[in-house]
Each structure stands twice: as structure tokens, then as C-alpha cells.
């Protein structure tokens, strides 16, 4: 095999894996892990079941690959914002409000550009199978603990009041993802186009208000 043939084979493998992940992401988002079969994923990707197993080594491993592909860019984006926040004086209410507002803007833009993400995470939270939690345990939980620790070391405990930071972060996360899980329903409820800039703006502003009120209720 020539070097050119080797490069071409790698490109084909990468393209096939990308098609598998895209198909799996859409099906897992709509049907959840247990409601999706590898045959359905293979059919959606236009490949044989044997090719799917060659690239992904089974449905559970494929599910973890899909979640990692969704979790990593989101956590990296949040991490960059958290670090910028901590470099400022977040004991100042205005600084904290502006920083969280910027985070919500970018997070909601990311979710809007990747509409499967919200449904993926909502299905994940509803799954009762502990084998499906590896990505959360290994990728998400350590990040949340790290962010909580950084904030607690930066902000005076008295200022935080009775806020339980881990639960506050999770509660806000569920609000953010939940608001983006069904744009068609929300659009119909609010009487706006589900794909409109108006709906996106209203969701962002609502999320900012909810976050602001939670932060203000610390006393």
C-alpha cells in the first residue's frame, strides 16, 4: 500500500465514523439509548451492521462516543468563561451578572447550532442504567466539582448565603437544556416561529432572569 492509499483509507474511515456518529446522535436524541438499535443507526448511516461494529465496538461504546462529542465542546466553552469570570471581581454584582449573561448567550448559541444536544442530555438524565453514566462521571462531574471549588475559593462564603452551588449549577443546567428541548412546542405556546430570532432572544433573556434571581436570593 502506498502512502497515498494509506491516507485515503484513513480519510474513508474518518468519514464513515463521522456518518455513524451523526446518525447515532440524531437517533439517540429522539429515541434514547434503549429505544435505538444498532441496525437503525447503520441504516441511517448507509452502512452495514458489520461496518458499524468494526468502527464503534457496540452500541454502548457508540453512545459514549456520541455523548463525549457533545459534552467536550460545551464543557470547554463553559471552562473558558469560568476562568475569565474568576479573573475578574465577581464579588461585584454587575460583573457577575454581565459574565453569566455572556455565558448564557454563548451556551444558547451552541445549543441552537446543535439541536440534538438538549434532547441527548434530557434523555441521559432520564435513563436509569448506570452503565450509561460513564461520560457524566468522567467528563462532567469532575468539571462541576472543579468549578464549584473555584467559585467557593473566590467568593466569600457569607455572600453565597444558603446557595448550594452544585445543586444551583445543576438546576440552572436543567433549565437551560429544557428551554431548548422543544422549540416547536415553545414556539406554538408563545405564538412565534420556533426557528426565529425572537424565540431565541426570549429564551436567552428568560434564562438570564432566572439565573439572576437565583443569585440574588442568596441572602
Report on this structure.
It is a single chain. The chain has 219 residues and is mainly alpha-helical. The protein has two domains: 1-57, Orthogonal Bundle (Arc Repressor Mutant, subunit A); 60-216, Tetracycline Repressor, domain 2 (Orthogonal Bundle). 79% of the residues lie in helices and 0% in strands. It is built from eleven helices and no strands. The protein has helices at residues 3-31, 38-45, 49-56, 59-86, 93-113, 116-126, 134-154, 157-160, 165-179, 183-190, 197-216. Helix 5 runs antiparallel to helix 11. The longest helix is centred in the N-terminal third of the chain and has 29 residues, at 3-31. It is globular, with a radius of gyration of 20 Å. The protein starts with a helix and ends with a helix. The model has no long low-confidence stretch (mean pLDDT 86).
